[in-house]
Amino acid sequence: MVILEANKIHKSYGNKFNKQEVLSGLDMVIEEGEFVSIMGASGSGKTTLLNVLSSIDKISNGTITIQGTEISQMKEKELAEFRKNHLGFVFQDYNLLDTLTVKENILLPLSITKMPKKEANQKFVEVATELGIYDVKDKYPNQISGGQKQRTSAARAFIHEPSIIFADEPTGALDSKSASDLLNKLSELNLKRKATIVMVTHDPVAASYCSRVIFIKDGRIYTQLNKGEETRQTFFKDIMKTQGVLGGVQNEH
Amino acid sequence: MSINQLIFRNLKKNLKNYYLYVFALIFSAALYFAFVTLQYDPAMDPTKGSIKGAAAIKAASILLVAIVSIFIFYANTIFIKRRSKEIGLFQLIGMTKNKIFNILIVENFFLYFGSLFLGIFAGFSVSKLIIMILFKITGVEGIATLRLSTNALIQTLIVFCAIYLFIMSMNYVFIKRQSILSLFAVKSSTEAKIKKVSILEMIIGIAGIGFILIGYYISSKLFGGDFVTMNELLIAMVIILASVIVGTYLFYKGSVSFIFHIIRKKKNGYLNINEVLSLSTIMFRMKSNAVLLTVITTVSALAIGLLSLSYISYYSAEKSAENYVPAEFSITNIEDAKRFKEALLAKDIKYSEEIIDVIQVDVNVENILDMSMEGMLVDPNLMTLAVISEKSTKDTQLSPGETLFTGYSDVNQKFMPLDDSGSIELKSQHEVIPQQLVGLKKDTIVSGFFSYGGLPVAIVDETVFQRLKDDLDPSIQKKASVYIGIDILDQDQIKAANDIFKEIGFTNIKSYDSRLETSNYQKQNMGLMMFVVGFLGLTFLITSGCILYFKQMDESEDERPSYTILRKLGFTQGDLIKGIQVKQVFNFGIPLVVGLCHSYFAVQSGWFFFGSELWTPMILVMVLYTGLYSIFGVLSVLHYKKVIKEAL
C-alpha cells in the first residue's frame, strides 16, 4: 500500500529577482512499512525535501499525498492536526524539551490526542523498554547521554503509532556505537511495528540499515538502490560506490 | 567601513531591536525629572507645609534614584547579553576589546543621552499634570504653572551621568571577562542547570512557607498585647521583616518548584500542553531568579502597604476628626464661646450648643486592664482621665456606684485592652471612691483636648461627680474645665462658620478645635504623604512590571526552540498561546499574590494608627495595583504570540 506520494514537487526560495530552486519536479513513492533513506551531497535539497514531505515547509508547486490525504493544500490548523495524528519526528539535535523528564517528553504526543492515562502509560512502558530507556524515564535530558537522548526522541516519534516517521540525520550527533545502537533499534521497530520510516542522512553506514536508498542531486532524484536480499555489508558497498559516482562537484571539462 | 560608520549602523539597528532599553531610559528619566521638578517648584511650598513634608520628598527622591538605577541596570544586562554574539564577532575579526568597548561607549552615549533628553522633555510636560493632581488631593488651592527648573535639570543630569558611568563600567567588566567562545554561548548559559528536585530543595521549600507563616503570625500578634515594651516591639518587627523576606526568598528558591514538583509527580509523566509550558518551565526559572523576585515582591508589598495605610488615613480623615472633635467647633471658655456665638448670629448662622463640665481625675484601672503594663509609660494605678457627669449626656443613666467609659477607640483596644466590667477607683485629692465599671462605649463626647488625644472618658453619676468636683487635685487639672460644643445646623454654612472661627483667631488657641480645620489639616498632611508614596508606588509598579516583562521577552527567546518542537509535533499556535497564558498567570501572579498577602498582613497589624476604615481603602488600592500590574502580563502574552508565530 502506498503511504506517501509526491508528485512533481517544486520548491524555491527567494524573490522574483533572485530565485533559488531547491526542488525541481521531484517524484517519489513510499510504501507502507518501508525504511527509506534519502542521501545526497550538501545543498542537494535533502532537508528541504524532508521538511516539505513532513508538512513543516510549503511546496511551491506539485502535490504531496499521505495516506490518501493531500497535505499540500491544507491550512495551518489542519496541518497541525494532521501532524499530531499521522507523523512522527526524530531530529539530529534531539529536539527534546529540557524542562521535561524523559517520560514526559515521550508522552507529549499522546497528551495532544487526549488518550486515557492508563493506555498511554502502557504504551510508554512498551516503547521505552524496546528502546532501552525505561531506566532513565525520570531523568532530565541534560542528565542522559546523546544516544539515550536520541532514543528518547525516537520513542516520542513512535509512541502514537504514526503513519510515517521522519528522521533528519538522526545519527549526526552520535558516536558510532550509539549510532549503530539507534539504527538497530529503528530497524527493529520498523520490522516489528510495520512503521514507515523516512530518514535523511549523509552517512552511508546509516543508510545501509534501510531497505531502500534514494539519492538526490540538484533537487531531483538521481538514482535509487534497493537492498533486496543483499547483506548489509554488500549494500553498504553499493551505496559507497553510488556516492562516489554522485560526487560533490561536477567535473566539467 | 570606518568605525564611525559601524557605530552609526549599529545604532540604527539597535534602536529598532532594543526599543525596550530606550523605553526604560525615557521612562526613568521622565519620572525622575518630573519628581525633581516638583521638588524644586515654588508652587509646592504650601503643600510641603512643614520640614517633615520636605524631608519626605527628599527621601522619596533618593529612593527613586535607587529604583531607577536598578531598573536601568537590569535593562542593560539584558541588552548587553543579547549583543554578546555581535561582540564575539568583532573580536573574531580582530578588534581589540578596548576598541569594542569604545564603540559601545559612543553608541550607548547617543542612545542613552538621546533618550535622556526625550525623557526630560516628557517629564517636563507631565509635571504640570502631576502638580495639579497633588493640589487636588491635598486640597491646596494654587495654580500650577509650567516652569523649567535649572536645579532640577542639573540634578537629573548628574544622577543619570553617574548611572551612565556605572553602566559603562559594568559593560567594561563584562567584555573584559568574556572569551570569544563564551560570548557566542552566553545566551544558553544564563539559566540554572535543570536538575531533579532534591531533598534539600524540599526542605528549603517547606522552610520558606514556614518562615512566611511565622512572620504573618507574629504580625497578627504585634499590637495584640504580647509585645509591650518598645524593645520587644522593635525586636518583633525585625523578626517579622526578616522571616517574611527570608521566607519569600526560600519560597521562590524552593517552594514553588517543590509544589509544582508534587503536582507533576501526580501526573505521572502525562502532562498536557498547558502544564508543559507553565509548570515545567516556571519550576526551574523561578529558582534562578529568586533574588530578583524577592526584591520585586518585597518592594511591591511595601508599596501596596504604604499606599493602603496612607489612603486609609486620607480616607478616614473626616472620621478621625470627628473622633477628636465631637462637635463642629469646640471651645473651652464661656466668654470666647459667647463671642463666637455672637459672630455666628451676626452672619445669620444657626447653631446648637452643648456645655459640659469636665474635670480630671486619677483613676485606678489595674483590675480591668487586660494586660500587664510593665515597662509602659502610664501607671495603671494612677491614670489621669477626664470625668463628666451623666447629666451632661443625653441617654446615660447610672447609679452612684457605676461608671461608664466612653471614647474607647480602636487604638485603645489594641494598646490598653480593658474589660468591660470590673472594679475601679476614682481618686480625688483626699478620698478614694470605689466604682464599678459597667461598660465601654466608642462615642466621643468631649474634644481630644480633655481626653489627652484619645484616652477614654469616664461618665459617673451626678452625686459622685459633685463629690469629685469639690475635692479636685489641682495639679492634674487642665486650664479649662468646661467644654462647649457648637454644632452648625445647616451643613452648608459650616465653611462660613469656620471662616469666622479663623477670623477671631481661635485656630491658634490649642484647646479650641474646629472639626473642619482638623480634617483639612490631616488631609493636607496625609495628602502629601499619599502623593509621595503613590508616586513611588507607581514608579515601582511600572519598573517591576517592566522588569518582569523584559524577563519574559528574554525567556521567550530562550524557549523559541521548544515552540518549534511543539509545533512540529502538531500543537497549534492556539494550543501554545493557551499554555503561555497559564504560564503568565503564574509568572506575574505568584509575585503579585505573595506581595498582596505580605501587604495585607502588614496593613492588618497596624492600620488602626492611621484611621478608622480598613477594608474600603485597602481593597481599592489592591484592586488598582493588580489592574495596572496585569497590563504587563497581557503585554508579555502578546509578545509570546509573536514569537510562537515565528517559531515554525
TrEMBL record, chain A:
Name of the protein described by the UniProt record: ABC transporter ATP-binding protein
Domain of life: Bacteria
GO CC term (a single one): membrane protein complex
Record-stated family: Belongs to the ABC transporter superfamily.
Molecular-function annotations in GO: ATP binding; ATP hydrolysis activity; transmembrane transporter activity
SUPFAM superfamilies, sorted: P-loop containing nucleoside triphosphate hydrolases (SSF52540)
Domain ABC transporter: residue ranges: 4-243
InterPro entries: AAA+_ATPase (IPR003593), ABC_transporter-like_ATP-bd (IPR003439), MacB-like_ATP-bd (IPR017911), P-loop_NTPase (IPR027417)
SMART domains, A to Z: AAA
Organism: Paenibacillus anaericanus
PANTHER family xrefs: ALPHA-D-RIBOSE 1-METHYLPHOSPHONATE 5-TRIPHOSPHATE SYNTHASE SUBUNIT PHNL, LIPOPROTEIN-RELEASING SYSTEM ATP-BINDING PROTEIN LOLD
Any matching Pfam family: ABC_tran
Keywords assigned by UniProt, alphabetized: ATP-binding, Nucleotide-binding, Transport
TrEMBL record, chain B:
Keywords: Cell membrane, Membrane, Transmembrane, Transmembrane helix, Transport
GO biological process: transmembrane transport
Membrane topology note: Multi-pass membrane protein
Signal peptide span: none
GO cellular component: plasma membrane
All copies of domain ABC3 transporter permease C-terminal, residue ranges: 60-168
Coiled coil regions in record: none
Primary residence: membrane
TM segment ranges: 18-35, 55-79, 100-133, 153-175, 196-218, 233-252, 290-314, 528-550, 585-603, 615-638
InterPro entries linked to this entry: ABC-4_Integral_Memb_Prot, ABC3_permease_C, ABC_permease_BceB-typ
Subcellular location as annotated: Cell membrane
Family the UniProt entry places it in: Belongs to the ABC-4 integral membrane protein family.
Protein name: ABC transporter permease
Species per Swiss-Prot/TrEMBL record: Paenibacillus anaericanus
